[in-house]
Design goal:
Layout lengths: L5 E5 L1 E2 L2 E2 L9 H8 L3 E6 L4 E6 L5 E3 H5 L9 H4 L3 E8 L3 E9 L6 E3 H7 L19 E5 L18 E2 L21 H17 L12 H7 L4 H4 L13 H8 L2 E2 L21 E2 L3 E5 L4 H11 L2 E5 L3 H4 L1 E6 L21 E11 L3 E7 L11 E5 L9 E5 L5 E2 L3 E2 L5 E5 L9 E5 L7 E6 L2 E6 L4 E8 L8 E7 L9 E6 L2 E4 L3 E4 L1 E2 L5 E8 L9 E10 L3 E7 L4 E7 L4 E10 L2 E11 L6 H8 L1 E6 L4 E6 L8 E8 L4 E10 L1 E5 L6 E8 L4 E8 L4
Length: 683
């Protein structure tokens, strides 16, 4: 399918002006007001409906009144001295209810539509004589954003589909009524936009977003560059410029600007929060599978249709119009084939006799057709000629990928107005005040106190609604010596890396080696990169430091025996860095036995059942014991500080502590020792 970027539309075609505005008002509303009665749009069982207020004070269903089912004495037929009857026309697959005017003896029978038109009051036409402004008998329209787009038909499409019930959920709002205003183009465009937006953002049932037809017709339509294509109750041309307006300028929610057919002095809703849509595209004329694919994958589509008398009188069933000349898209371009009304197609089905049909969503209230909807064969009345779909914006959470201890980070929704209130949540939720989440409208602020790990940040529009957007964020802090875990393997043994270390693996004459491995255990800051820099050496003919895996594996080669070098380790992540100097001796053990002896005097072990740590001091020296204990978290924050009277056994309750790395500093009356503790939670 070729992308159209520029198109010239010629003025005349088959006796019609292609630039003629299309906008059929609700015939029942127009009929009610034509007779001088008040018409109102109210909430019904399935959505909106029109009511006509009759002179006797009764408020009746406007479509029932038009069809002669109620208020017969106030009908147009009665004003002409005739009686009104509802004539049932059974086509087998569908039913029409046609209002007719008859005399007492029923010698005269004339359809109400025909009588009104005969008297110069046609119902099935636009009230607008507005046409496009042509230059030199033609108009040039830039279709850069309004082009056809390849729609690759799915290999397997379901026999039937309906956005009112997709997997048990409805993604399109209830039916609406345009009233006596020729704003059908806005209702069709908004229906397509709503369905696309709700489907893309997992919004269904009570969580569905609803957008404002009034903002489209009275605000966007008043912009000079678009006024010649659509405006208010005057209808719209065939360029689908209203879809361009929704993409370029956005549209506010219906709750901010409810529908009104009354033209305001000026638009007062420019400051309402708006959502801009991505782009829109036409679907190839009469490509039924492509139209189905667009509906199934993107949402309801906007379609033009020609309103016939049978369409107007439709009651239920699968409708096939007898005018077969409107089954084909005869014009060039094909989407210019004549239509005078805009609707949305929300799905399709299959009839054993007539074949495939569309589920057509009208804007004439729930009193028309099947609760405001119609089933119509896929090629009737040019319904498959001018079809377009609109793409919802990609709403994502924007912000940093990681959050350090400071500063806090703010996250917001992209392609989404800042004034729409959102509910924010995270998984896992904060525990022991390890981090906090504060939301404000469509943004939130994450503050990290001491959490390390991945959280999933989510935004959704209300309680019980699906997730609107998500983002994975890593909470961490700058590494430090207390969170640095490195082991040294040398001489056939592996132990923690010490400030001073002996390289005991003898490789070949005079060469001593060892391997350093840095680990990233849970609940400690992840280290992105480590550099190892030799800062000094003594008695060395060769002192090589080779690193790999972002510095997390190091191979040391020193020569000769007694070679001594100092290596500076610098560890870095998104939150900062630290360095520490380590000393290495070739073939010689460092003199750190006193510290080791002190460690062996203290035994720390957990009790998983009670959630306690047992700290036991092992010594025959009665003057030594547990005199003081300081419990700190991985960032050095004191969580407990207690003094004891030279005890041999102390129980510390850690059942309420979050999983992670902790440090116990213990004073035995003579010296302090530090011990690393890793707490894990059992499921």
């Amino acid at each position: 399918m070729k992308k159209l970027t520029f198109l010239t539309i010629f003025l005349l075609f088959s006796g019609y002006l292609i630039g003629q505005f299309k906008g059929i008002p609700d015939p029942s509303a127009k009929y009610c007001k034509l007779l001088g009665y008040e018409y109102k749009i109210v909430k019904g069982e399935k959505g909106e409906k029109g009511i006509c207020l009759l002179p006797d004070g009764n408020a009746v269903n406007a479509w029932d009144f038009y069809k002669g089912k109620v208020g017969k004495e106030y009908s147009y037929c009665a004003k002409k001295g005739l009686f009104i009857e509802t004539k049932i026309i059974d086509h087998g697959s569908s039913i029409e209810e046609c209002p007719v005017c008859v005399d007492k003896e029923k010698r005269i029978e004339i359809p109400l539509l025909q009588l009104l038109e005969q008297d110069g009051m046609p119902l099935l036409n636009s009230d607008s004589n507005k046409v496009l402004k042509f230059n030199n008998d033609s108009i040039s329209i830039n279709f850069e954003k309004k082009s056809s787009k390849e729609v690759n038909s799915l290999e397997s499409l379901p026999t039937s589909f309906d956005w009112r019930n997709r997997s048990g959920h409805s993604y399109i709002p209830s039916i609406r009524a345009q009233g006596s205003c020729g704003s059908c183009y806005a209702f069709a465009a908004i229906a397509a936009a709503e369905c696309a937006f709700n489907w893309k953002n997992n919004l269904y049932d009570n969580c569905r977003f609803e957008f404002s037809e009034s903002f489209l017709i009275w605000c966007l339509g008043s912009i000079p560059s678009w006024y010649d294509n659509f405006y208010g109750c005057l209808g719209a041309d065939g360029s689908y410029t209203e879809l361009t307006a929704i993409c370029d300028s956005g549209v506010c929610r219906r709750s901010d600007y409810p529908y009104t057919s009354e033209e305001p002095d000026e638009c007062s809703h420019w400051n309402d929060p708006r959502i801009k849509f991505k782009e829109w595209h036409r679907v190839d004329c009469s490509d039924i599978d492509a139209i189905k694919t667009a509906i199934y994958t993107n949402g309801a589509v906007d379609a033009g249709v020609y309103i016939s008398e049978g369409f107007n009188n439709y009651e239920w069933g699968v409708y096939k119009d007898p005018r077969t000349d409107y089954d084909t898209c005869y014009a060039t371009p094909c989407w210019a084939s004549y239509s005078n009304h805009r609707v949305a197609l929300v799905g399709w089905g299959h009839d054993a006799t007539l074949g495939d049909y569309w589920i057509l969503r009208n804007s004439w209230g729930e009193g028309w057709g099947e609760d405001g909807y119609m089933r119509i064969t896929v090629n009737s009345l040019h319904i498959a000629c001018a079809v377009a779909y609109i793409e919802a914006p990609d709403v994502t959470i924007a912000g940093a990928d990681s959050v350090c201890l400071s500063p806090s980070q703010t996250y917001s929704l992209t392609n989404f107005s800042s004034n729409f209130p959102m509910i924010w949540s995270s998984d896992p939720e904060p525990s022991n005040e390890d981090y906090s989440l504060i939301s404000d409208g469509n943004s939130c602020t994450v503050t990290n106190d001491h959490h390390v790990g991945l959280i999933s940040l989510s935004a959704y529009p209300g309680s019980g609604c699906g997730t609107f957007a998500t983002k994975d964020i890593f909470l961490t802090y700058a590494p430090n010596i207390y969170t640095f875990y490195a082991s040294l393997t040398t001489g056939g043994e592996t132990d923690w890396l010490q400030d001073c270390n002996g390289l005991m693996t003898y490789t070949f004459p005079g060469m001593y080696s060892g391997d350093i491995d840095v680990s990233d255990p849970p609940y400690v800051p992840y280290i992105d990169n480590i550099t190892w820099t030799k800062t000094s050496q003594q008695n060395c003919s060769f002192a090589d430091v080779s690193s790999s895996n972002h510095g997390k594996h190091v191979f040391l080669n020193f020569k000769p025996f007694g070679c001594m070098a100092t290596i500076r380790m610098t560890a870095t992540n998104d939150c900062g860095s630290f360095y520490h100097d380590y000393q290495f001796l070739a073939g010689i053990l460092c003199e750190n036995k006193a510290q080791m002896d002190n460690q062996e005097k203290i035994n720390i072990y957990p009790n998983p059942t009670s959630g306690h740590l047992s700290v036991r001091y092992l010594s025959n020296d009665l003057n030594l014991g547990i005199n003081e204990i300081v419990l700190k978290n991985s960032v050095g924050m004191k969580l407990m500080h207690k003094k004891y009277d030279c005890q041999n056994l102390i129980m510390i309750d850690v059942s309420n502590n979050a999983p992670g790395i902790y440090f116990l500093d213990i004073f035995d009356g003579k010296e302090w020792s530090s011990h690393r503790i890793s707490l894990q939670k059992r499921n």
